[in-house]
Amino acid sequence: MPEIKHKAFLFDATRCIDCRACMVACSVENKIPMNKTRIWVAGIGLKGEFPNLERDTMVYHCMHCNEPDCLSACPVGAYSKRADGPVLYDSKKCIGCRYCMNACPFGVPHFDWDNGLVDGAFIDKCTLCTQRIDIGLEPACVATCPSGALMFGEREDLLSYAHDRLAAQPARYVNHVYGETENGGASYFILSHVPFKDLGLPELPSSPVKDVSEKIMRFTLPSAVGLGVVLTGLAAGVHVINQKKAAAKMVEAAGSPTEEEK
Amino acid sequence: MKLQILIHPRFRLKPLVLILLALMGIAFIIAMVRYASGIGSISNLNNSYPWGFWVSFDLYTGIAISSGAFIITALVYILELEQFRPLVRPTLLTGLLGYIMEVIALLVDLGHPERIWHYFIYQNFTSFLLVIGLYVMAYSAIMTLEFAPAIFERLNRKKLAGSIRRFMKPLVILGAVISTLHQGALGALLLIQPVKLYPIWWTPLLPVLFFISALAIGLAMILFESTLSSRYFEHRLEIHLLEKLSRSIPPVLGVYLAARFGQLAFSGNLKYLFAGGILSLLFWAEILLGAALPLVLFSIKKVRQSPSGLFLGAIAVLLGMILNRFNVSWFAVLHSDPLTYLPAFMGIVKYFPSLPEVLLSVGIFSAGILAFGLAVKYLPVFDAEEHREEG
Q1: Can you give the pLDDT at residue B1?
Q2: What CATH class is the domain A7-209?
Q3: Which of A54, A99, B46, B185 has the fewest CB atoms in 10 Å of its CB?
Q4: Is residue B140 part of a domain?
Q5: pTM, full prediction
Q6: Which of A42, A216, A239 sits opposite B204 (nearest CB)?
Q7: B176 occurs within a structural domain
Q8: Per-residue confidence at B233, pLDDT binned at 50, 70, 90?
Q9: Chain A interface, best mutation among B37, B44, B126, B205, by max A CB count within 10 A
Q10: Largest CA distance in chain B
């Protein structure tokens, strides 16, 4: 995989204390109304028996994929991928078809189900706090995280840092950086002590889910032209044969009486 | 031998019209509520299931049952099988209304229906939803043109009708190309969900399978619609034509079954056919009802020659294949779901359509049936002039 120089997150599930300050910080920074959120803290519930209880949490927002499926799926090109990482959504182009929500394997884009035509129903998702990172600040969620569970930095730096952590404490972690290869590589890395599936993360191959769709799309124009040529040829051929038949019949009818006439 | 049967209607039409009008009124009110206070206010669609009943019924079913139009126009204008000409106009009408109903449904389902023109200025050509939208617009226009002679004949504008007829052949070829791509693209629309769509249904062959099954659905729809309308509009049932048409259904279904099982065997997914619980059951239901049973039925000459045989066989194809469309676009789409762990206010994660959601589609469908009835009453649909001239 070619080296990609852009920003990324690192989330360490073993460090998360489920305070949900990241949710609050995100909503305040991005002026998200109370009935919505761009970031979720997934609580997986209690495990074990008292007094040996364990409770796992997962901070979940847009993975900012290197090859975004939402971008591929959007019919009106409302999505874009900025060179320094963020996958962005343009509400001015959006027609509200919600195909991006089907395409995203992580279920990230959310829709305004309760807005009519006047308020406007749009998609909402994490923007990687572009207004902050453009002036050299960390995204709001990272800046506010009290336990160091969320980190922000250059993708390659964070990746090697994550692998250093895995190497230093192999007993503490599942030996994999989720997001390094998943779905063609994402910009949100996850370290965990429980299987990633338990955190609600899908098992994904290293090729983005849009791959087959985009490959098949390339057949569109050739099949259109091919089919057009075949059908035109067929129509012309049938027409010529039918005309010849009709002419032959005419000659036959003029020459000698046919069997039917007898 | 030309066998023509006249079947008398069982029901009076008037109460039916009133019921249809009432259903349309209900749907109109539901649509107004949706425009005022959002899709969430009338449907059970949610962030886990952004698409549901409307997509399965209005988009996938509506377009599939419209495919008869390109089949019959191709038979008559490309293969010059003049005998099928009496079926052209009713089938075109069905197709055109199917597309119009789908567009109306889309205007409710889209978050921003007023921005539909964005399809022309912001085009992203990696998106199958873009090309599907363009196909819908293009093919609706083509079908309107193909059907226009009927309207001009009624208005006594024979010259206009004639000038369109002169361009019929290229129009039909263009329509057949676009319609074929459209049916395939509906299958390709689901390719982007390899991890969400159950492996029985997800395959790169989806567009091909969709096209083949659209052929079967289109043929079955012609049989179904001809039988019904001969009953309600009291015109003669062209059973010799329908018999001939139905002969082509078994080979189409045979190819479909071979492609379907061949693909499953090749990809090593045969194991899911018995392991998926309710999803395996749904697969067998669509295969047995929509392909295997009608394959047998339409291979029997006696069935093909009886009106009720044709009707029942067509219903089997339609029910089974529509179940297939529901399966791929709804039942078998398993959204991987981070939302399961959400704080409670983010809400529902399961999906079943709400009553207003279903009633909206029912209302639009009622409008389609009513429009068909009106068109048959006021336009030369069943007794086309060109047909009469040839005697």
Answers
A1: 46
A2: alpha beta
A3: A54
A4: yes
A5: 0.91
A6: A216
A7: yes
A8: confident
A9: B126
A10: 72
Range list of β-strands (E), chain A = 7-12, 40-47, 54-60, 79-81, 87-89, 110-111, 123-124, 150-154, 188-191
DSSP string, B108-151: HHSS-GGGTTHHHHS--TT-HHHHHHHHHHHHHHHHHHHHHHHH
The pair of three-digit structure tokens given for residue B317, joined into one six-digit string: 């194809």
Taking CB atoms and an 8 Å cutoff, what residues of chain B touch A232? 173
Same domain? B182 vs B215: no
When divided into structural domains, chain B yields a total of 2
Task: Answer yes or no: do B247 and B281 share one domain.
Answer: yes
For residue B359, being part of any structural domain is answered with no
d(C-alpha A40, C-alpha A19), whole Å: 11
**Exposure b/e, B130-148, CB count within 10 A at least 16 = b:** bbbbbbbbbbbebbeebbe
Domain membership of residue B184 as a residue range: 53-190
Q: Which of A103-112, A181-190, B26-35, B226-235 has the lowest mean pLDDT?
A: B226-235
Cβ pair A117:B124 closer than 8 A:
no
Q: Among B332, B352, B377, give the residue marking a domain's end.
A: B332
Question: A235 vs B38: CB contact, 8 Å cut-off?
Answer: no
Q: What is the pLDDT of residues A12-41, one digit of tens each?
A: 999 998 889 999 999 999 999 888 889 988
**Inter-chain CB proximity A111 and B111 less than 8 Å:** yes
Return the pLDDT at A225.
Answer: 96
Same domain (yes/no): B183, B298:
no
Instruction: Quote the CA–CA distance of B14 and B7 in Å, as a whole number.
Output: 19
Residue A132: CB partners within 8 Å, gap ≥ 6? Answer: A29, A138, A139, A140, A143
Is residue B389, in this structure, part of any structural domain at all?
Answer: no
What is the enclosing helix (H) or strand (E) of A28?
A: helix A21-29
* Sequence-distant (≥ 6) Cβ neighbours of residue A243 within 8 angstroms: none
Yes or no, beta carbons of B127 and A74 under 8 Å apart? yes
Contact A205, B158 (CB under 8 A): no
- Contact assessment for residue B200 and residue B324, using Cβ atoms and an 8 Å cutoff: no
* ipTM attached to this prediction: 0.90
